[in-house]
Amino acid sequence: MRVFQMQRISAIALLIFLTIHMIVVHYPPFHINFDNILVRLQNPVWKAIDIAFLFFVLIHALTGAYVVITDFERAFDYRKALAWIAVVIGVVAFIYGSMTVWAFQPPA
Amino acid sequence: MANNNRRTVTVRIQRFNPDADAKPHMQEYQVELVQGMTVLDALHEIKTHQDGGVTFRRSCRHAICGSCAMNINGRNTLACKTPLKNEIDKHGRVTIRPLPYLPIIKDLVVDRTTFWEEYLRVKPWLIPPDDIPEKEFRMSPEEVHALNNAETCIMCGACYSSCAVIGLNKKYIGPHALLKAFMRVLDPRDAAPAERLAEVSGADGVYRCHTIFNCIDACPKGLNPTQAIETLRKLAQKRQKYEQARRERQKHLNEPIP
Predict the structure, then answer these.
(1) ipTM
(2) Complete domains list, chain B, with CATH
(3) Is B203 in contact with A4 (Cβ distance < 8 A)?
(4) Per-residue confidence (pLDDT) for residue B4, from 0 to 100
C-alpha cells in the first residue's frame, strides 16, 4: 500500500513539475537555450524546483520499477531486498543529482 | 424435410495427454453445424461420435456452474453459452484451448488449485455481527446496488486465467477472489471489513492489479472485477474508519429501510 501511495502522490507532483518543465524549457517564448538555463539556474528557487523535480522523478521511477520487477513470481520472494536496493539507488542518485544542481554556477 | 442451413465446420482443439505427449498440439475435427449449436455441443458431438478421448469439464450447460470455461478463439469464456455459428462467422473456424496460465491436466482440463487456494484466502463466507437481528438483515437498495451484481459470480475462472498478473505471479490473489472480498467488504451484514481489507492490501493483493481490464473482457456474467479492485484500494486507505462506520450501520440492521 505504501508503494502505491508513493507512486500516486509522486504522479500528481510530476504532473505539476512536468508541466512547469515543459513550459519553461521547451515551449515559446522559452525556447531551449543554454543561455536561458544559465540564467535560470542562478536563481536558488529554480534550483530548489529542479531538486524537487528530481526527488519525485526518482520516487516514481523506482517505485514503478519495483512494482514491475516484483510482478515476477521469482522476484516477488526477494521484494524486501529489492526495496532496499531501490532505496539505496534513490538516495545515491538524489544526493548526486542535488549536489550537481546546487553546485551549478555559470562560467565566469 | 432437408435442412439447407446445415454445413460442416472446422473445430480445432488443443490436445495434451501428459502420459503420451511431450507438449500440447492442435487437432482438427469436422462438425456438422446445426442451428442453435453451442461450442459445448460441438465438443459433445466430437467426444460422442469422433474421439472419445477428448477431455473437458462441463456440468450444467446453462452458464451457471462455470465448469466449461475455456479459451475459445483467443477469448476466455463459457463453451455452453458461446454459439458455434457466431465464432465460425467471425473467425472461419473455432479454436479451443484450455484456460491460459494454469497447468494442464489433460486436453481442456486445467489444474485450478491456486485458483481455489486464493479464493479461500479472502474468507469468502459471511462473518456475521455479534448481535444478529431477530427477524432479518435489512439492506437498502443503495447497498445492494453498490455490490454491482458481484454475488452472481459463478467462479468459472475466466477472469483469473485472463489476468496478465496471474500469468507472471500465482501469489497474486486474483480478480475472482478480490471480487468476493469486495462483495463481503461492502455487505452491511459482514462484521470484519477491516480484517478483509488488511488481507487484500498486502504486497500480493489489490495494489498488484495493473488495471489491464482483461478480467472484465473475459467475465461471461458481465461483472466488473477491476471496479471491485479499485473500490477495495480506496477503502483499504481508510479501513479503520470504514470498520467504525460498519459497526454503526449494524446497529440498525433490523430496522425498516426509510
Answers:
(1) 0.76
(2) 7-110 (3.10.20.30), 113-250 (1.10.1060.10)
(3) no
(4) 54
